[in-house]
Amino acid sequence: xxxxxxxxxxxxxxxxxxxxxxxxxxxxxxxxxxxxxxxxxxxxxxxxxxxxxxxxxxxxxxxxxxxxxxxxxxxxxxxxxxxxxxxxxxxxxxxxxxxxxxxxxxxxxxxxxxxxxxxxxxxxxxxxxxxxxxxxxxxxxxxxxxxxxxxxxxxxxxxxxxxxxxxxxxxxxxxxxxxxx
Length: 181
Fold this sequence. Notes:
By secondary structure, this protein is of the alpha+beta class. The chain is built from 3 helices and 11 strands; from the N terminus they run ββββββααββββαβ.
């Protein structure tokens, strides 16, 4: 669904602003693409095709993609529930997905009044179990997706994060800090 709009190549871009924040976190701001988020200071920034930025920690990562689209707002795309159903439908349609289940979804307004949807779900794939926190927004005919992935060490209903205690909470905190300018 949403990931189909992600370009295949990473384009050269100027270095975004990074500042140290309190509590072992750092603020990351992309002036060019118009978003910001707060990530753990220990996470390393990496390059990934299709991602505007990717931060990697032990057993988890958070990446942001920004893609041009034809609609002006998330509400034009659908309600919180409709978009969540489409998201899970897309995950279930992947050949490697064995199961997908929504854990929670929420809607909030960003600092500039932009509607932001967040989905927390788990998937079992042929490559292992993952917990995903996906935050989406649309502003200025751009689709922003902040996707956090937590790798789980064992199959079953709960996610035992590879990165240990606090890994899921760290990804959730990054997701909640995401905003568009």
